[in-house]
Automatic annotation (TrEMBL):
InterPro entries: MmgE/PrpD_sf, MmgE/PrpD_sf_1, MmgE/PrpD_sf_2, MmgE_PrpD, MmgE_PrpD_C, MmgE_PrpD_N. Pfam families: MmgE_PrpD_C (PF19305), MmgE_PrpD_N (PF03972). Keywords: Lyase. This is 2-methylcitrate dehydratase. It catalyses: (2S,3S)-2-methylcitrate = 2-methyl-cis-aconitate + H2O. It comes from the Bacteria. It comes from Pseudofrankia asymbiotica. Its EC number is 4.2.1.79. One of its GO terms (molecular function) is 2-methylcitrate dehydratase activity. Belongs to the PrpD family. It is an enzyme of class 4 (lyase). Residues 19-265 form the MmgE/PrpD N-terminal domain. Monomer. Residues 289-473 form the MmgE/PrpD C-terminal domain.
């Protein structure tokens, strides 16, 4: 691993291309290093994971609307196009629109993989655009595997090093470059071309964090799909010889100088050296529950704490979650968002409210991706009463553990203190989710398959599930004509997206 120091340069300094972060990212993307067996297995797991969460979301409004939009954009003559979740494999659309539709389906339930460090991310968002590009140009599983490994590697490296949310920039600003780099690897593009792609993708995906603040809308699911779509379009432009703003990270009017830590900022970005395998995906983790990642461990804690409290929960005076800065300020009471305590709030808002999530998980001793968000469930009087007793506070030790570089020390949980009616307290704490690699029940292949089956049940016929899984586990061996098998088709008519629209 090589640690690259990144800082702002004045225009007259004329920073050489090969010294720019975008070039270093491109060099990693174009390094023909082999994918390890362990990474191969994890890529397969995440392809399965993405498909499961997409299947469970196929009938939801944002997914139906994105699918309808994609169907308006046929592939150009002479190209295969790409598949869309929910549609037959022979139905193909232009790859950027497949990335759009599939990206929304994967993100809609906020239920796939995660990586948290200086920034936070869902690295599985890289898969839809890379897969769409592979299907469109007629590549096979081996090339797809290499592209996905790169997407994860770049995403993890940027997330470790550069905080975006600190400056109210949405985390898709790391996804645009990582997806672009992954497609560059997939297509075997020259370093110069990938350099231009990374710059274009970053420049066009730096958006504000309001998409995850206050009244959160369906754009939360669309934002990463937008980054994937933009990445494919950037590849097309760069392959036609068109350039990007440069230096995009380090320029005196660039991203770091004006959107991040400013002209005096210094970041250290660790990237694999020449010949080093891309192992970033191995540091990421998936979700057992359909909720924001910092809530995963606390849902697991609630599963054991709820029965322990029993009827005392209904009369408790208060519930305080001692947790990290990030959890407190993003999904906790420290966000100062009244919507996080609103029984009529959107699903997307409730998904980012740890007071709501803990209230329901304590009462139900578990979590469900649909029932736990149902409007009637959110409006239940006893839930609202408990919900409004729950607050978060930042604990410096949990903040330190959130940012720890030692995997054994890194934690995303907290300590819950319940003050009962008689003034006594009940406390419990948890460091990582049960499904985390260091948790009580780490996810392996069987758990990924079980999650897929659970989410696809009632949506996708069993034989269609079997067909998809048989293709997914063979991913590195898939021929170009077999890559279209990495999609799912339900056995009932899908809803049509919302009426209206320009097309």
């Amino acid at each position: 691993m090589i640690e690259h120091t990144v800082r702002v340069h004045r225009s007259e300094e004329r920073l050489a291309r090969d010294e720019q972060l975008a070039w270093k990212i491109a060099a990693v993307a174009t390094d023909p290093v082999a994918v390890t067996a362990e990474v191969t297995e994890m890529v397969i797991n995440r392809v399965i994971d993405n498909a499961g969460v997409a299947a469970a979301a196929l009938a939801r409004g944002p997914v139906a609307a994105a699918r309808e939009q994609a169907l308006r954009h046929a592939p150009p003559a002479g190209r295969a196009g790409a598949t869309v979740f929910g549609l037959p494999p022979e139905t193909r659309v232009s790859p950027e629109w497949a990335a759009w539709a599939n990206g929304v389906a994967v993100r809609e339930l906020d239920f796939h993989d995660t990586f948290l460090a200086a920034e936070y991310s869902h690295p599985g968002d890289n898969i839809p655009p890379i897969l769409a590009a592979a299907q469109h140009v007629g590549l096979g599983g081996r090339e797809l595997l290499r592209g996905i490994a790169t997407g994860y590697e770049i995403q993890v490296a940027l997330v470790r090093a550069i905080s975006l949310h600190k400056h109210k920039i949405d985390h898709i600003a790391h996804l645009g470059p990582s997806a672009a780099a992954g497609i560059g690897t997939l297509l075997g593009l020259p370093t110069e071309t990938v350099y231009q792609v990374v710059g274009q993708a970053l420049h066009t995906t730096t958006t504000t964090r309001q998409s995850r603040k206050g009244e959160i809308s369906s754009w939360k699911a669309y934002a990463p799909a937008f980054a994937g779509k933009i990445a494919i379009e950037a590849v097309d432009r760069a392959m036609r010889g068109q350039g990007a703003p440069s230096p995009i990270y380090e320029g005196e009017d660039g991203v770091i100088a004006w959107l991040l830590d400013g002209p005096r900022a210094r970041y250290v970005v660790g990237l694999p050296g020449p010949g080093e395998p891309k192992l970033g995906i191995l540091d990421t983790y998936t979700k057992e529950h359909s909720a924001e990642y910092q809530s995963q461990a606390l849902i697991d804690l609630a599963r054991r704490l709820g029965p322990r409290l029993g009827p005392d929960l209904a009369t408790a005076r208060s519930v305080v979650i001692h947790t990290s800065h990030h959890t407190h300020h993003v999904i906790g009471s420290g966000a100062n968002d009244p919507q996080k305590y609103d029984p009529t709030a959107s699903r997307e808002t409730l998904d980012h409210s740890i007071p709501y999530i803990l209230a329901v998980a304590l009462q139900d001793s578990g979590w469900h991706h649909e029932r736990s968000y149902a409007p009637r469930r959110a409006a239940r009087p006893d839930t609202v009463k408990l919900w409004r007793k729950i607050t978060t506070v930042e604990d410096p030790d949990w903040t330190r553990r959130y940012h720890a570089t030692d995997a054994a020390e890194k934690a995303f949980g907290g300590r819950v203190v319940v003050t009962l009616a008689d003034g006594s307290t009940v406390e419990d704490e948890i460091a990582v989710a049960d499904a985390h690699p260091l948790g009580a029940r780490p996810f392996g292949r069987s758990e990924y398959v079980a999650k897929f089956r659970r989410l696809a049940e009632g949506v996708v016929p069993t034989d269609e599930q079997d067909r998809f899984l048989a293709a997914a586990v063979r991913l590195p061996e898939l021929r170009p004509d077999e890559l279209g098998e990495l999609t799912l088709v339900p056995d009932w008519p899908l809803p049509i997206g919302s009426e209206g629209g320009l097309f």
